[in-house]
Amino acid sequence: MSPASAHQRRIVIVGNGMAGASLAVMLAREPALDVTVIGAEPHAAYNRIRLSAVLAGDSTVGEIGLERSAATVIAGDAVTGIDRERRVVRTETGRQVAYDTLVLATGSTPITLSIPGGDLPGVFTFRDLADVERIAGTVGEGRPAVVIGGGLLGLEAAEGLRRRGMRVTVVHLMPTLMERQLDAAAGAVLKGELEGRGLEFCLSAQTDSFIGSDRVAAVRLKDGRELPADLVVVAIGVRPNIGLARDMGLACGRGILVDDALRSSDEAIYAVGECIEHQGRCYGLFAPAQEQVAACARQIKGDVAALYGGSVEATSLKVSGVALYSAGRQSAREGDDEIVLSHARDGVYRKLVTCGDRLVGAVLLGDASDGAWYGELIATGASIHAMRKDLIFGRQFAEAQPLAA
Ligand SMILES: Cc1cc2nc3c(=O)[nH]c(=O)nc-3n(C[C@H](O)[C@H](O)[C@H](O)COP(=O)(O)OP(=O)(O)OC[C@H]3O[C@@H](n4cnc5c(N)ncnc54)[C@H](O)[C@@H]3O)c2cc1C
Fold first, then answer.
1. Residues above pLDDT 90, as percent of the chain
2. Which mutation among 104, 286, 296, 316 tests ligand 1's pocket best, with the greatest number of atoms within 8 A of CB?
3. Is 70 exceeded by the pLDDT of residue 2?
4. In this structure, which residue's CA is closest to atom 37 in ligand 1?
5. pLDDT at 3
6. Does residue 329 fall inside a structural domain?
7. Assign residue 72 a region: left if phi > 0, alpha if psi is -120 to 50, beta otherwise?
């Protein structure tokens, strides 16, 4: 590690995940900054989003590396303590790294099930490369697998296991798949599409326990059903990693509390990515993290006008052959309107939610080619007044029509 020269400001980033690594790329270009990234994972930074493709066998680990920065990277050494007064971080191997400015980018941890059998071998989470390597090492062609959780991650895990030849059942607590992004009609279309590929579903179903002596052999549901399982993937959500921040006395809610400058309750410490809570919201997607990283990088470089104002969450499902896009509200609130176009038989469903002259939500299934356009309309709050009646038919059609008075 080259020591920072006297005129350089020492920036230490905790977490070499997607937010931490991309912040390092932006900051390490500045000669005035000496940037060190400390990551708990033993690998170089990689694109976590593409773990689904690695699980499905569509990408290799070697293909998902992220752009390398000129920062000093310490990998495989978790930060265990921070002395805010002396401005020094300590790692689990005993390193001490001094900072002038610290950035926490510790991401989040998968929620696990505290039920009987929850710690049996063969029960996995799906968050990092180590998880994917463990799951891939257990896959058996023609063998049964169960995925707990019918959200984005659960469905991508299920499809990945199916592509590797397993017989997969998805257990979901709610009656609708991806209920945070889809309404009931879209959820039903998606379910039909995935059943057509061979996935099976138990909806409105609660997991009671995992059964097995030396490793998992089945999943028992509360209604008494037992689903055989050589392996189980639990994908029921994530929780921001705030342990370190809380232990050092930073203000935390569900995530590390930050203001619009991405600053924590200590002005020498910023936080970005899934570990933060901003204006009451925690995000579980990369686009908001990218916006936070861009604003934080500018703040650290001295641009105090670079503020983060929150993000519109937009989701796509990375299951090849299933076009799905969802942004903003998936259902109308009081005072909103809904515009729906549906061809369930062809697997096409499109719903727009409007509030006055603004688009506030879009759900697209079957054809998501206009997703980015709708997402932009939602994010910018542009007036849709002139094209309201044509909006549902997509950009090309709506923009080709003579403007309404
Ligand atoms: C399989 C999968 C598919 C996904 N698909 C999508 C998608 O399609 N679209 C999308 O927008 N998002 C997707 N996501 C979510 C996306 O990956 C995250 O939003 C993004 O990675 C958040 O970045 P982050 O840096 O905040 O957290 P992370 O990428 O999780 O990085 C946090 C890092 O901090 C490290 N760390 C934690 N504590 C410490 C410590 N004390 N010391 C040192 N290091 C520490 C962790 O080990 C980790 O490497 C997906 C996630 C997964 C798992």
1. 92
2. 286
3. no
4. 106
5. 64
6. yes
7. beta
User: Given a cut of 90, is residue 243 above it in pLDDT?
Assistant: yes
pLDDT of residue 238: 97
Is 311 inside a domain boundary? no
Residue 386 belongs to domain spanning? 323-400
Which ligand 1 atom is the nearest neighbour of the CA of 15? 34
* For the CA of 55, the nearest atom of ligand 1: 1
103 and 242, same domain (yes or no) = yes
Give, for ligand 1, the residue of 49, 54, 147, 178 to mutate: max count of ligand atoms closer than 8 Å to Cβ: 49
Are both 16 and 103 inside the same structural domain?
A: yes
Do 364 and 351 fall into the same domain?
A: yes
Is pTM beyond 0.90? Reply is yes
Whether residue 139 is found in the same domain as residue 210: yes
- CA distances to 184, 309, 368, 380 from 383, in Å: 28, 20, 22, 9
The 10s digit of each residue's pLDDT in 368-400 is: 999 999 999 999 999 999 999 999 999 999 888
Residues 243 and 102 both lie in one domain: yes
Distances (CA, A) of 70 to 36, 73, 96, 293, 346: 9, 9, 21, 17, 50
Mean pLDDT score, 267-280: 98
Q: And the tokens for 40?
A: 């708990």
Report the separation in Å between the CA atom of 41 and the middle of ligand 1, taken as the mean of its atom positions: 11
Which residues are near ligand 1 (CB < 6 Å)?
14-20, 38-41, 48-49, 51-52, 78-79, 105-107, 126-127, 153, 241, 244, 273-274, 284-287, 289, 318
Q: Is residue 307 part of a domain?
A: no
Ligand 1, residue 157: give the atom nearest the CA. 1
List the alpha helices (DSSP H) in 270-349. Answer: 286-300
Q: Distance from the CA of 196 to the center of ligand 1, in angstroms?
A: 31
Q: In this structure, are 132 and 229 located in the same domain? A: yes
Asked whether residue 137 falls in the same domain as residue 100, the answer is no
Same domain, residue pair 101 and 249: yes
Which of 208, 234, 260 is the last residue before a domain boundary?
Answer: 234
CATH number where 373 lies: 3.30.390.30
**Secondary structure (3-state) at 91:** strand
Q: How many domains would you assign to the chain?
A: 3
Q: What angle do CA 255, 328, 186 make, to 5 degrees?
A: 115
Q: What is the CATH number of the domain that holds 178?
A: 3.50.50.60
In a domain, 284, yes or no: yes
Q: Residue 89's CB: how many other CB atoms inside 10 A? A: 23
Calculate mean pLDDT across residues 207-231.
97
